[in-house]
Protein 1
Amino acid sequence: MNDLAVLGRYIPGTSAIHRMDPRAKLLGSLAVMVIIFMAQSFWSLAVCAVFVLGFFAISGIPFKSAFRSIVPLLFVVVITALLNIFFVHEGTVVFQWAFITITTTGLIKAVFLAIRLVLLLLAMSLLTLTTATLDITDAFEYLLKPLTKLGVPAHELSMMMGIALRFLPQFIIELQTIYRAQVSRGAQFKDGKLSMVRSLTIPLFTSAFRHAETLSLAMDARCYHGAEGRSRLKPLSYSALDRNAVFVLIFMLLCVMSANFIPQTF
Amino acid sequence: MRISFEGVSFSYANPEHAEKRKRRLKKRKEAGIVAPPASLADHKAPDWGSDPDQVWALYDITFTVEDNEFLGIAGHTGSGKSTLIQHMNGLVHPTQGRVLLDGEDLADKAVFKRCRGQVGLVFQYPEHQLFAATVAEDVAFGPRNLGLDDDEVRARVAEALASVHLDIDEIGEKSPFELSGGQQRRVAFAGVLAMHPRILVLDEPVAGLDPVAREEFLLLISELHAQGITIVLVSHSMDDLARFADRILVLNAGELFDLDTPAAVFSRDEELRKIGLDVPAAQKFANELREAGFHLPAELYTTESLAHDIALQLASASESEVRA
Amino acid sequence: MPLIEFHDVYYTYDGESFALSNINFSIEQGEFVCVLGGNGSGKSTLAKHINALLLPDQGSVKVLGKDTQDQNETYYIRSHAGMVFQNPDDQLVASLVENDVAFGPENLSVPTDELRIRVADALANVGLQGFDGRETASLSGGQKQRVAIAGVLAMKPEILILDEATAMLDPRGRKGLMRVCRELNADGMTIIMITHYMDEAAQADRIIVLDGGEVACIGSPQDVLTQHELLERLHLDLPFAAELSYALAHAGIDITATVNTDELKEELCALALKA
């Protein structure tokens, strides 16, 4: 309940990865994830792992923060692994009891998928740990811009995302206070009775409306009038860094592709 | 009913881990890898204004809230006041030490369950926790959770609303969100009173109210105290604490700085200023006049009593001159 | 020419009762004005008229010579009369301090190089140098309010309006905010502060007291805040010095009513010496 910072909160820094253009970083992390999906063997996964760990080393983000940021999503990894252990019935049987059959192939597949998922999550968290949320939403807005012609409100969407992210930590604190206040009034949330849940959600919603009212007034007072004629404190611009990142990613792709050809001995 | 704190320390993080993390962070900061510490700060702890690296939110606190006492709690933001009062009804448990309610450990689940409702905790801006469709329903939430039958619940709702000077016939069926801010706060307050607490813990109950509503609310609290309810009042207003409290507990950086009568606490005005706290205006002025040679005998002054003593002294001085 | 002019201003929210009626006053460049009044006296409504968030139903409000009714001037007025609101948690737009401070001037299409300078200057002016990259969520209430002020300053305003901006702060935060406002005022900024706190009002150049949407009294703190009967009728507190000097006068001491504690102390010492 305390730590809802799924995928990690931005840790300021000055590393090459921090300084990359957020658009390049957004696309880059997508590319890394695609490359990880292309890894077919443990060898190529190992190559991916080396690269991902390398990226973290460059970013200066302590690996522990990185790991902690993916902990809330590890259950996905565990479930995927368990599904493979219990439902893949090819290969040599290593354990059998009643309807449970565990095979070597199942185990190997489970391990493989677990590693792949962890790497994917790490690649995602590298983006969120090294990029301020506003930069991510800016990048998002820019990448969506071609769609404005189709009626997609790119600026408004990214503004909404930015504000949502800005209020998220506040809502977590508020929810915590409301929870404690209702517990102080004898509420018990274990059995999930509707009135109990309502005693949390309704105050949270009214608070959201209250915030929204003043926030829109405050935005008006600061001359907000949509995307038109807005300048930027941090204009997006690609640099040599981003070009180099492209080369690094191509190199990673090549390494992974070649590693796919190394025969796996089990 | 008494609440005793015995050597209570509390840490939001596991203290050993926090210590280690702090050391590592320092090293990393020195190496210049990670920029400012702010966003690395443990965002679990409500530590605004305090040192984000602070390991203990409370450290080695021992004291007892006596039966039917009016205890004031002072300390600037981040000194651990909120954490301290959340120990009083078992919302949080000490990392070290014990909190005893009439001699029984609140960390014990059975004790906690039995004592539900006995210690009423009113949070800051309690009106933000209103949720039911009608005022009466909202106030009934607490008593219902105690498992009381309908008749008893109804009786308690009426009684609680009456004790905060609200008319159940007039507003009982209204939505709490239709009411004014001050009325909403009273409703929220009634919601806690309806559980028949014997100790009422209030966190900044008059924050954000205008002077009229403030005064009404403070009088309401002192009325409840007169009816025999023990009051623990957390406040930034030293004037309010001086006016109502029997004793004042001063917290600084999670540690017990002082626990004494208002007169004794406010006689330490230099030290209080150092930890970011004020002294009531009348007391501060009396201290300044004393330094300027005035003879002001009382230990604790209000504006009225100060005016009285100053007038008395000026009069007696001119009298003695006339005699001379 | 006065910086702000209210001429016979009337305003109603519901069309039945007037939240403001018959408001007439003007504020000069560089003044520090406090607006006092109980809940529902129309303080906030008045403040929102100064930067065209609300427009008068009758009468006119002129800011820097421009009528707030003129829609072409709305952004000019809003950027020159910046406003800080009550709740520190409601008015920051961005997660990072620098982005939030830049929000206003970005809307005014200030070029990037200039933006950087403005953000740095504004943060320095509120005593938050080096907070650029901090997350707004990690700040204290007082710091958040100072970021909000910096966000206004970055628009280079001439008028700063604070709508009960200290109401939700702790004493330390309040003092810090007051200090910032006084420094800005010393540098020529016109400040309009809406508040409940009499010790803050006592520091103003001029006070406007509102009651039921009408101006009950305008004058210097010394003139307004020593009017015991008036303030009592309007349910407003007196500043400590005024209250004590009133109580002393009541007890038969010949003393000037004052809002300044130091003056009161000097006068008392002089009296004691004479006696």
Protein 2
Amino acid sequence: MPSIIPALEWIEGLPWTTAIRESAWGYPIIETAHVASIVAFTGLVIMMDLRLVGLAFTHAPLTQIQRRLFPWQMAGLVPSTATGLLLCCVDPLRYYGNVFFRVKLVLLALAGVNALAFHLRTYRTARRWEDDPRVTSTARLAGAVSLLLWSAIIVSGRLIASNWFN
Amino acid sequence: MKTGIVLALLAAGALCAGQPALAHHPFAAEYDVNEPVTLTGTLARMEWVNPHGWIFIDVKQPDGTITQWTVETSGPGQMSRRGLKKTDTVDGMSLVIKGYQSRNKPTLANGRTLVLADGRSFYVGAVGGPNDGADR
Amino acid sequence: MLPFLEWCEGLAVSQAYRESLWLFTLTQSLHLVAITTFIGAILIVDLRLLGWGPVRQSRAGMARSAQRILLWAGLAVLATGIPQFTANALSYPRSPVFVVKMCLLAAALVFTATVRRRVALADEGGLPSWVPRAVGAVSLALWMGVTIGGRLIAFYG
């Protein structure tokens, strides 16, 4: 399998990625926007998950929470992904070699699978249990898994900066 | 009464909420506060990059050989706010760096103070570290 | 003030925290998750105040549920924040960005515990419609300001 390192080196050498890497303001702004949008997005996901596991907002039908929060979760997810990709381009070799970055990507994929599985299967039956404070067990499981995964994603994202095991 | 308790709790919690960004990496995990170093040498090169800059300094050993040290500094934003300009750090110039040695790598240090040949000194430490800012 | 901060740095827990890698990592990880949860609970009610989010639900009901989360998450932020604060207590007075951020934080807390709380728990018909919207907007601005300011400290000391 051909190495992707030359491609990463090429990206690192581009004028615009270099400019951001050496900027006084650009990098701090992108990184701060990344963190702020992640906090907003993940915070709302956690609220939804707390409803799923029956710890909060139990008076509200699950579908109400899901439907109304979803666009705002996306409003957080889009800038966090965009800034994340930008940050990767600015220092691609550093992230490629960083174990916590790789762990974060794997966890993100797992969180995506969990969300997709929930929406395509369990959520389809929502009308039957949406009003119950204690929703159906597969939905509760999806919520619990989501809480665990997103907490781990936050932590692994923070540990990227720690430079361990490099 | 209940609101009072809530306010007090949250206020106290908020006091502590500022810390994560300051304790950016665990300084103590990578660098040894008990191993301060002063490096005198010539600048091989300096990388003015985010999130941390890097100074590569050639230090002449007592036996005549040259050892290159790598010194971690703050990013370009902080440097320029402290008055250090990219034009101030010219390859080949003499300089003195004070900092703390890495625990794991013998020629890696966390930079605190940079002294240029013309005598001007700058705090180059990243936020977070012993007596942070005391050695400005 | 200074003697108090020096005392903080001298505590056994501060020493342990500065020296131990796993302790730092554990408390900071919990701290970040607690902050995210806290902000989530703020956002869900702010969205509701602004007329977005789960609108068919009673606003007071949402706010009461969110308030429980704010208290628990806030407690977690406090508990995990204390060792981080005391370990580097002396660095605080030297950071202008930090001082600004703390003022914003104080304003956000006071606002949330007083005006916002009253409006969020009030009967929905009882207030002119611009009031909850204004309160939601101010709350959003303050808390996102705190989040952004908190992160900027790392870049601008």
